[in-house]
């Protein structure tokens, strides 16, 4: 449920999808090590500027691909609140430093370091604060503009996809790869992924497939696309506007978007030729049925998807399927509340720690999941992830 004081705006992502691509790349695990990086707190890990009526937030950990840590979240939330409550604020711009990433994910390593010692509160505080920030962005009354230039995964998706304006570039790389580390696509993934067309969201969630460049726009994840070279100019034009209306901002973003169309670039989703296959194969009511669909299809592409999914945590796959199925009929606040219960339970499940070990610590990319196979994941285990731990508290938004 959405509290009446926060009932300000729902962000519905319903852009149409036009297509489909071949298999998930063999390098699908690329960037994971740095996506879920360990935090080093610093005074300048996030920068705040005010130019006229524009508030500008810069994620400033380029060496860690601007990975999001609790320290950054604790700074960003009150600043957005402060600017939103200031009647002179005309817009908020969120961007990443360094040119390689907007934000490649969250501070997972620190969470598992503490959780392995039995300190689950550190992880719960991170997820609680992160989801509250996601909701603040989604309900922000001031026009919010995210420049999702470069790698945008996990926590970076939460900082952008719930905003009113999401500007991608040819360098944008979008993915939700959490099932590879024993987690699930959180930060509101249960809300925005089911609202992508033709079961694309389920496909992205279960396989971790990466959308690049124009595909991020064509899939409906971004609302506009510009070339990375014009981002500084776009920012200058935005902040130079005198008391702009929401429509003025929309018109300027549209202008830059239209200028990005050269006539030489394709105007369809790279996955176009697999669109119907994704819809047919990933619409099933269970992960087991999806596996069976892929086997029976027998095409090279289908078998490649099956191969990729078999590398993921079986528990993560099954809770993710249920998560997205439930999220389809929930509002954002309900989704985030559900995800907080799920995250709290994942902190108490071995796969999260094993996934982080395999990706971040030993880096052998050979996790030993427990349970090891899809049939071994019982309904009771799945259902337990959707109930708050006995020592936990519900998420307050």
Automatic annotation (TrEMBL):
Provide any one GO MF term from the record. 3-hydroxyisobutyryl-CoA hydrolase activity
Q: In which pathway does it act?
A: Amino-acid degradation; L-valine degradation
- Quickly give the catalysed reaction: 3-hydroxy-2-methylpropanoyl-CoA + H2O = 3-hydroxy-2-methylpropanoate + CoA + H(+)
Q: Where in this chain does the record put each Enoyl-CoA hydratase/isomerase domain?
A: 55-386
One BP annotation, GO = L-valine catabolic process
EC number(s) given by UniProt: 3.1.2.4
- The organism's superkingdom is given as Eukaryota
GO cellular component terms, semicolon-separated: mitochondrion
* Keyword entries, A-Z: Branched-chain amino acid catabolism, Hydrolase, Mitochondrion
Give the subcellular location: Mitochondrion
NCBIfam families per record: PRK05617.1
Member of which family?
Answer: Belongs to the enoyl-CoA hydratase/isomerase family.
Its biological purpose: Hydrolyzes 3-hydroxyisobutyryl-CoA (HIBYL-CoA), a saline catabolite. Has high activity toward isobutyryl-CoA. Could be an isobutyryl-CoA dehydrogenase that functions in valine catabolism. Also hydrolyzes 3-hydroxypropanoyl-CoA.
Q: How is this protein named in the record?
A: 3-hydroxyisobutyryl-CoA hydrolase, mitochondrial
Lineage of the species this protein comes from = Eukaryota, Metazoa, Chordata, Tunicata, Ascidiacea
